[in-house]
Write a structure and sequence with these properties.
The chain is α+β, with helices and mostly antiparallel strands. It is about 50% helix and about 20% strand. It is built from six helices and five strands; from the N terminus they run H-H-H-E-E-H-E-E-H-E-H. The strands form two sheets. Strands 3-4-5 form a three-stranded mixed beta sheet. A two-stranded antiparallel ribbon has the order 1-2. A hairpin with a 2-residue loop joins strand 1 and strand 2. Helix 1 crosses helix 3 and helix 4 crosses helix 5. The longest helix is centred in the first third of the chain and has 27 residues. The radius of gyration is 33 Å and the shape is flat.
């Protein structure tokens, strides 16, 4: 199936571009039904082989697209659920739910500005451990080795709370971007604050130094 992947993607791309171009031309009134009829009549003059080629192309696109989607869904290389056994029975957790939980745990670290967590577990080779990939964004003055270890530790602890796996997961932490903290600009006082300041200030009252 893999050998048909590249030709299928190329043909799908060509069909998508052609369909988009035709739809756009029809929408702006450059082509209409008469143009389609003329094109069909012109191709029909080629005889049997033109129609046979069209049928083969249509069957190839329809059949292999359905097969490609079905095979990738049924026999995907990576599992969509993490399954493990406990004393009470079998547990199955969706990978997306674990990714969201680990992401929240990593975001709680102050030095982390943004983070993305992805899980990979091979379906056909259960002996291979779960692979946890973490990509994060941090600030310029942060110690990167210390941050990497801190993220790895947080992910390990949260993963232990989620699943008791026979094989220890592999944690791969990457710093994808280092940002410079924006300088905080002093905001001018608002009209409300200026009014309050004016009300608090009282000038001298006259006459000054007189008891009466």
């Amino acid at each position: 199936m893999e050998r048909f992947r590249i030709p299928l993607l190329i043909l799908d791309g060509l069909v998508a571009v052609a369909a988009s171009a035709i739809a756009l031309l029809w929408a702006i009134n450059v082509v209409d039904v008469t143009h389609f009829a003329a094109a069909a009549h012109y191709v029909g003059q080629w005889g049997f082989w033109a129609r046979a080629g069209a049928v083969v192309l249509a069957v190839y696109l329809a059949l292999f697209n359905v097969l490609f989607v079905s095979v990738n869904f049924l026999f995907s290389k990576y599992a969509t659920h993490l399954e493990f056994a406990t004393a009470e029975g079998q547990v199955s957790v969706h990978m997306g739910a674990i990714e969201e939980s680990l992401t929240r745990a990593a975001k709680a670290i102050l030095e982390v500005e943004d983070v993305r967590v992805s899980l990979y577990k091979e379906r056909q080779n259960a002996a291979k451990p779960l692979h946890v990939f973490c990509s994060c964004t941090t600030w310029e003055e942060v110690n990167l080795p210390e941050l990497t270890e801190k993220i790895r530790g947080v992910l390990k602890e949260r993963m232990k709370e989620i699943a008791a796996l026979p094989e220890a997961p592999v944690f791969d932490v990457h710093i994808s971007k280092i940002l410079e903290r924006p300088e905080e600009k002093e905001k001018p006082p608002s009209k409300k604050d200026a009014k309050k300041a004016a009300e608090l200030f009282h000038g001298p009252e006259y006459p000054i130094g007189l008891d009466n």
